[in-house]
């Protein structure tokens, strides 16, 4: 809904509204924004977490640069969705303890995973848990907010964005990921080094994005009217051997240990395929066979993130949230690196905005079947998110991307249709699993499903 005065009004339903990451970031972004007047309804299966976040969100009124956003916790999903202009979905499919099984069991079979939430054995079983959840949310959106714009933030991004479109073909949904920010920050750094001053940020960098989520590439790069690809290629050649450290500002040493990278995987993929890789190394490595990168992550300058660290980090964030709720930590209006508020402002009639998103392929990416979820740029405006033609990947790389995309689409259809017999053959063809003898792969799959069986529909359990 639009208010053509100083601010544009928007009603946002946040599913997973007890989030300690995306919900907190949205609060700070909305407090920093001067375009929107937002009313945010928070729904979470952990109702107390949603109530906590509503209280924290309303504390941001004191620091808002524009119209203070209002926050309210809702007891039901339907209550949060009714009349929403925008729906944001950020949920955890299961628990961190389940994610520990996604990582730990494959490690026993010689398959290390740096993240384990997108592809590989961890991403596959996580999808089995999450697809029914997103299908349920998509059905509720069809019933209670059929004209809303819907942003999915939950991984595995491609499969879950596909689930929303599968259960509600008319949904206006996209998948949002910040991975491409990494290469844009690199390009800004290159330009600033050349200029001798901190003139540019990643927001000044334009890239043409092609691929699937967490396995994305860019074939054109521009900044300030200049073609930056030659400079980027020179940068890669300069740092091909030692690497180039990329860390997140404001994070502690332990976070950098587990999330920092030297971009050596991205640089090596550029050497092999002739196109810059845009995602972070920890994700890129999981799309390739174990022997290529994951067998020796230290050699490639990245770490395997233990779930124990994620649990400690969650607990620390929860404690900080309670301190903020109690007024002992002041909220801050802060513009994050995320594009979500810019996308919402454009959809509500503000200035058009271009960013990389996950959408069904309607021709924007060549060589991938129609309807497959791909990641390219899209133009956000009052007309909705419209994909921008991206072109094609190099043939050898396209074959690899297409294999993953086809597997993701088949996995989605198998889960939604209850085709249990189709699941293991798909699981066994993932590049991280394909080297295992079939009996070992089958044993690993059955153990993984059993370990988190409480979250997986009954018709997908058991031997088939």
Automatic annotation (TrEMBL):
Residue stretches making up the Glycosyl hydrolase family 4 C-terminal domain: 209-433
Cofactor binding, per record: Binds 1 NAD(+) per subunit.
InterPro entries hit by this protein: GH4_Enzyme_sf, Glyco_hydro_4, Glyco_hydro_4_C, Lactate_DH/Glyco_Ohase_4_C, NAD(P)-bd_dom_sf
Sequence positions that bind Mn(2+): 177, 214
Sites marked Increases basicity of active site Tyr: 117
One Pfam family matching this protein: Glyco_hydro_4
Keywords, sorted A to Z: Carbohydrate metabolism, Cobalt, Glycosidase, Hydrolase, Iron, Manganese, Metal-binding, NAD, Nickel
Annotated GO MF terms: hydrolase activity, hydrolyzing O-glycosyl compounds; metal ion binding; oxidoreductase activity, acting on the CH-OH group of donors, NAD or NADP as acceptor
Family note: Belongs to the glycosyl hydrolase 4 family.
Key word Mitochondrion present: no
GO biological process, any: carbohydrate metabolic process
Cofactor annotation: NAD(+); Mn(2+)
Entry binding sites for substrate: 155
Organism (species): Poseidonocella pacifica
Signal peptide residues on this chain, from the entry's feature table: none
Protein name: Alpha-galactosidase
């Amino acid at each position: 809904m639009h208010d053509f005065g100083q601010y544009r009004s928007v009603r946002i339903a946040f599913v997973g509204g007890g989030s300690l990451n995306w919900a907190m970031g949205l609060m700070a972004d909305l407090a920093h924004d001067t375009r929107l007047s937002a009313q945010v309804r928070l729904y979470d299966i952990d109702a107390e977490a949603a109530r906590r976040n509503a209280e924290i969100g309303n504390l941001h009124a004191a620091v808002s640069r524009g119209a203070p956003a209002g926050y309210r916790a809702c007891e039901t999903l339907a209550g949060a969705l009714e009349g929403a202009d925008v729906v944001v979905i950020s949920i955890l499919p299961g628990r961190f303890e389940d994610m520990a099984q996604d990582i730990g069991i494959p490690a026993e079979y010689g398959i290390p995973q740096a993240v384990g939430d997108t592809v590989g054995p961890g991403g596959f079983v996580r999808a089995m848990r999450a697809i029914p959840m997103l299908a349920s949310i998509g059905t509720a959106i069809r019933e209670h907010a059929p004209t809303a714009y819907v942003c999915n933030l939950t991984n595995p991004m491609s499969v879950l964005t596909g689930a929303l479109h599968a259960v509600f073909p008319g949904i206006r949904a996209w998948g949002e990921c910040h991975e491409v920010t990494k290469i844009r920050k690199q390009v800004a750094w290159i330009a600033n080094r050349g200029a001798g001053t901190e003139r540019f940020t990643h927001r000044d960098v334009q890239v043409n994005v092609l691929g699937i989520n967490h396995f994305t590439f860019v074939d054109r790069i521009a900044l300030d009217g200049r073609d930056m690809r030659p400079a980027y290629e020179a940068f890669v050649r300069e740092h091909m051997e030692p690497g180039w450290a990329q860390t997140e500002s404001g994070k502690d040493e332990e976070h950098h240990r587990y999330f920092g990278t030297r971009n050596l995987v991205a640089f090596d993929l550029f050497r092999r395929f002739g196109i810059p890789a845009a995602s972070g190394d920890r994700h890129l490595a999981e799309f390739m066979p174990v022997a290529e990168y994951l067998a020796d992550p230290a050699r490639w300058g990245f770490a395997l993130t233990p779930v124990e660290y994620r649990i400690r980090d969650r607990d620390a964030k929860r404690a900080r949230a309670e301190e903020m709720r109690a007024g002992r930590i002041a909220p801050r209006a802060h513009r994050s690196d995320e594009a979500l508020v810019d996308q919402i402002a454009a959809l509500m009639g503000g200035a058009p905005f271009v960013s990389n998103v996950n959408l069904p392929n309607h021709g924007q990416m060549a060589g991938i079947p129609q309807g497959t979820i791909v990641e390219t740029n899209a133009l956000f405006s009052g007309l909705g998110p419209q994909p921008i033609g991206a072109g094609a990947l190099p043939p050898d790389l396209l074959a690899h991307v297409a294999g993953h995309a086809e597997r993701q689409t088949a996995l989605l259809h198998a889960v939604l249709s209850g085709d249990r017999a189709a699941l293991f053959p798909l699981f066994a063809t993932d590049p991280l699993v394909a080297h295992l003898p079939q009996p070992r792969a089958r044993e690993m799959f059955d153990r993984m499903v059993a370990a988190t069986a409480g979250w997986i529909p009954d018709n997908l359990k058991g031997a088939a």
